[in-house]
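User: Quick one: structure for sequence A, then sequence B.

Assistant: Sequence A:
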Amino acid sequence: MKLLVSVRSVEEALLAADGGADFIDLKEPGHGALGGLPIATIREIVGALRHHGSGLDISATIGDVAMDEADRIAACVDAVGACGVDYVKVGIERAPQARAVLDALAASGWPIVPVFIADKGLDLADVAHACALGFAGVMADTSDKRAGSLFDAVPMAELRRFIATAREAGVMVGLAGALRAAHEPLLRALAPGFAGFRTAVCEGDRSAALDPQRLRTLVAVMLGHATAEPGATHH
């Protein structure tokens, strides 16, 4: 299971790259679940990581855009994709327009990772549709981080089905949503391809700065070199 760490600046990106992250994910946590960074900032971070010699995959979100704003989604995808990231992350809400959005994303020519917003439950038919379209990967995440973690929002059985749907299609699959080191046993039981973190590596809430010590602790726990403090594993 690989470790995705969300960052908002060059400084945080370099800390994450040197601190053991497998994926560097670019977002503005103060602007929502998939808050987007300014295009200039995305371009600056990508350039800094490559200049630093990092060969890690870089993803970036397009921001929280509603499913009925197809033109805006397309424009944001084009702008983020042109920054040289390896993956463009697009939130997919449980909505009637989701299938049409997924079809348009698959035809966009960019390496898209649909992120299914799971607070209202995962529509596994939409997930299966996405997997059949040939995306590089899919994720499940939550919108309201204050309501708890992904494991508070979605039953384990539903997460197992989500992961199985992607795995059967040969699609990379990830989980995120206010995850912490204490969720390691649950993540290990589900065995997604990667798990995404922001809250767990910040001193305070997810809008605070990345804390190198918390990152080191998380990496150690996820690698099995340390044990998380008890809690958050009762679901």
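Sequence B:
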Amino acid sequence: MILFISDLHLSPRSPGATALFLSFLAGRARQASELYILGDLFEVWVGDDVTDAYSAQIISALRAASDAGLKIRLMHGNRDFAIGQEFASAARVELLPDPYPLILPEWQFVLSHGDALCLDDHAYQAYRAKVRDPEWQRKMRAKPRFLRRLLGRYIRWQSSRRKRHHTWVYADLHAAATDDFLRDHGYATFIHGHTHQPAKHDHIIDGIHVERWVLADWQEDRGECLVWDGKALSREALRAEDRS
């Protein structure tokens, strides 16, 4: 069994989601063989050396699940793009490129955070091009920790400011670019997050039916994982009352 999650946006400001994730790692996740976290595990991450008790708790929980036999693979999102190998080694998780082809004996998937295909959000794409640039990241990591903490606070402030506008929603994936992406990846089933708009989309590409599954974001009282049981995908709700 393989589980897929994304967009948890964990931080000390989300105690409910944090508790739900810790319970998930200690319980439900260990019934699976693999867990794929497709970006935005954290609300913000500005360098592996900027650690505190909160991040140490998450790292410890990931490591414990990994030590129990769960293979955990992590993809960068638009919030935690600065996660590096130091974090991965401490948490005993594998960092994945985006996109990532997951080829199983019974099926083929392509995994992505999804933000690279939100081409209609021009301001976001300019931001993404900057923060994903290796040279920009190198310079950012070289800055003093207090400046990077300020950067993290600014990113959180910008996000909360946008979300206060009730008409604002995440941009969806660009239709033509998504079709090209599916074609380029051999019509594999596409799993992604980022948009916070969980759904299953049916694409017809060159006469071939291709499924696109959008993962749900996590809230204080609920989360969700996508489950591959070897035959089919299904959604599984995770709720606060289910915590052990």
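The CA atoms of residues 24 and 181 lie 32 Å apart. The domain at 2-242 is CATH 3.60.21.10 (Purple Acid Phosphatase; chain A, domain 2).

User: Thanks, that's what I needed.
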